[in-house]
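Aim 2 progress update. The chain analyzed this quarter is reproduced below.
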Amino acid sequence: MLILAGLGNPGPQYADNRHNFGAMAVDAIADRWRFGAERKRFSSLAREGEIPLPQVLSAEGPAGGAVRALILKPQTFYNESGRAVGEALKFFKLRPADVVAFYDEIDLAPGRFRMKTGGGAAGNNGIRSITAHIGPDFRRARLGSGHPGHKDRVMGHVLSDFHKVELPWVKQLLEACAEAAPLLAAGEDERYQAEVLRLAPAAKLDPRAGSGAK
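Predicted structure tokens:
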């Protein structure tokens, strides 16, 4: 089983913020693979379903299967995301490696995407909170949202909505994360990253170069 945690802040006033990019991504995955209805669980809005595994060829022909997954959108506010993730992990008796946290990354250019496992929080308080509750060895799906250029502008940047001109690449990246999810379910994070970037190509720009284009 996988826990796919999409970081963000609760409430309609935050729904389209850059800081809710992770929550948007897990919503896209749940919609694409027809997860069940959303309900309140583990201090989160949760949906359960299955993600099919990529087909492999065997002597008997194509073989696949599916991985059960729980979508979590913590309702504890971004900086306390770890409380919700920790509750779910303990309930299902899972390992940190069974958690994938989707979140906005200001140190990646707009539209870029990177997977990693473990490591530090790099100033992200949501990731720091998850680490405090379950340790650092969980998987991270980082969605590039660009940097405002100066640290004093970061808070206003992440709590602002995406600009209209950005919406095409935002939509493309969300759809790519959802479409490629079978690779994520199979634990093939490098292939998942490559497939997301193939489906939603974005230039390797300086994240401080602006967020209005790829």
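The CA atoms of residues 6 and 24 lie 7 Å apart. The first helix runs from residue 21 to 32. These observations will guide the mutagenesis experiments scheduled for the next reporting period.
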